[in-house]
Specification:
The protein is of the alpha+beta class. Among the domains are: 68 residues, no CATH class; 88 residues; 149 residues, Heat Shock Protein 90. It contains 10 helices and 15 strands. The strands form 4 sheets. A 5-stranded mixed sheet has the order 10-12-13-15-14. A hairpin with a 5-residue loop joins strand 1 and strand 2. The longest helix is centred in the N-terminal third of the chain and has 86 residues. The radius of gyration is 53 Å and the shape is rod-shaped.
Length: 499
């Protein structure tokens, strides 16, 4: 019993130590994950600030271009005013100033037409005068509305213009800057998954670090956007040309994996420990089986020689005229020794089961025990010998089972009490309940009592119930367990056998 107490104590110590190691591992991993999350958050914040600064730069550049556009329109208006003054000038009026204004326009393309749309003059563009402004040329110069100049007798001329070449090149650069803005956001997203949407937050504008096939699944995109918004507030970007956009992002794949790494690690450790435990248990059971078989075979071998001698001595006693009653009792004990030897020899071999009346087996076994124990022990067996219940049994081994349980019951009652054996049956099984009025078994010991070496007796080996369990479960494919037990009132063992 002390062996199992120490074993249980060591199991608890090792289990607590394993829990401590796992807890320390999880705690340290959690610290690493927290630190990585903190560092990644800094990188994302820097990235988000860079986005805002880049957006501000784009918007500032766009505002600057709007101002340049206004300045160029003002310059064209000044050119139109100079043109009108020249048309309406008196013969003596000095026109050098207005002519210089017209001459200083070296950048803005201007086409002058009459009321019919015929080209009368052009500046900073090569066109043929006398032709009508139409087709692609008119479309090119219709981005801005023409400026009408009224002169003599309410006649009008029209000044068509477009952006200067310098402004057009700068505007193209601005458009390229805006187009590349979102690509740079994705490329420089610090390896975090990014989705850029329109102002509604539903239509995907661009994405990064996300599989392309996933974006085709609208439900997945909606759930992902909601998940991203719950983790981080979307970055709002208002670009002058393309309007409002939202940048959604979440933790990187590496960080997400690290968050679940402790759980996976714990699962792997658990699976490894379970496999190791199962292999160890299998190896231990195999080793125990070898020990049991070897011990049983050796015991049978050791009993064989003196048993043969006892048979010879018994024949000699018969010849000398020993009392016949004494001879019969000696013969019974010799037969019992032969049965015991046969039992030990069968351990480790495939048991041969034969249809046997289990009621008769129990009555016969108890009858043998009754004559060799205290008269203060009463046995009650139900049903009686008039009832027959057949079940596949190995007679010698199963007699050993009943014998062990009955002897344990007598020992538990200290030679004074009642042993009740009840055999019942259902469609598929036989139930044998063996109840005593002994000192009982603590509930915590219900399973321990079947382990090798466990005993409550001062001189016991703790092998009887272990052999009983092996015979019932390994050789008869049955079950044996403590059905119930109350301290100082008694215990009920139950055996279940298949019909």
């Amino acid at each position: 019993m002390d062996i199992y107490l120490r074993k249980k104590r060591w199991k608890l110590i090792l289990f607590a130590f394993a829990i401590l190691i796992v807890a320390a591992s999880l705690y340290y991993t959690n610290i690493l994950v927290h630190q990585i999350r903190k560092d990644e958050r800094k990188n994302v914040e820097i990235w988000a600030d860079a986005i805002h600064q880049k957006a501000d730069l784009v918007n500032f550049t766009n505002d600057l271009f709007e101002q340049i556009k206004d300045e160029e329109r003002k310059r064209v208006s000044i050119v139109a005013e100079a043109q009108r003054r020249i048309f309406n000038a008196t013969p003596n009026e000095d026109l050098n100033f207005f002519l210089s204004i017209l001459g200083e326009n070296n950048t803005i393309p201007v086409i002058v037409t009459d009321e019919m749309g015929k080209i009368t003059n052009a500046r900073n563009i090569s066109v043929d005068t006398g032709k009508y402004l139409e087709g692609e040329l008119k479309q090119e110069f219709s981005v801005y509305p023409p400026i009408a100049v009224t002169y003599y007798l309410n006649k009008k001329i029209y000044l068509y213009y477009k952006d200067s070449n310098i402004f057009a090149k700068l505007k193209q650069g601005l458009d390229d800057l805006i187009r590349s803005f979102f690509s740079e956001v994705v490329l420089n997203s610090a390896s975090v998954p990014v989705i850029i949407t329109d102002s509604t937050g539903k239509k995907v504008y661009q994405s990064g670090n996300i599989p392309a096939d996933k974006l085709k699944d609208k439900a997945w995109v909606t759930n992902t956007l909601q998940s991203m918004a719950s983790q981080n507030t979307p970055i709002k970007i208002d670009l002058a040309d393309t309007g409002v956009h939202y940048i959604y992002y979440q933790d990187s794949l590496l960080l997400t994996q690290l968050k679940y790494y402790p759980v996976v690690q714990l699962g792997v450790i658990f699976v490894f420990l379970m496999i190791a435990y199962l292999l160890f248990s299998y190896a231990r059971k195999s080793e125990q089986n070898q020990v049991w078989v070897g011990m049983a075979k050796e015991t049978a071998h050791q009993l064989g020689t003196p048993l043969s001698s006892m048979v010879a001595w018994m024949e000699l006693l018969k010849l000398k005229g020993l009392d016949e009653e004494t001879i019969r009792e000696i013969e019974k004990d010799v037969q019992r020794l032969e049965t015991i030897t046969d039992r030990f020899s069968k351990i480790g071999s495939a048991a041969r089961l034969e249809k046997t009346d289990i009621v008769a087996v129990v009555h016969d076994t108890v009858g043998y025990i009754r004559s060799r124990i205290s008269a203060k022990v009463n046995f009650d067996i139900k049903p009686g010998l008039t009832k027959q219940i057949f079940v596949p049994l190995n007679l010698h081994l199963f007699e050993w089972v009943i014998e062990n349980l009955c002897k344990n019951a007598v020992d538990a009652m200290e030679g004074n009490g009642n042993v009740n054996i009840e055999i019942t049956e259902d469609v598929d099984h036989i139930h044998i309940d063996i109840a005593d009025t002994g000192k009982g078994i603590p509930k915590s010991r219900f399973k321990t009592i079947f382990r090798p070496g466990y005993t409550s007796k001062a001189r016991g080996w703790g092998l009887g119930l272990t052999l009983t369990k092996r015979i019932v479960e390994n050789y008869h494919a049955g079950k044996i367990f403590v059905k119930s037990s109350t301290l100082n009132k008694g215990t009920i063992f139950r055996i279940i056998l298949k019909k």
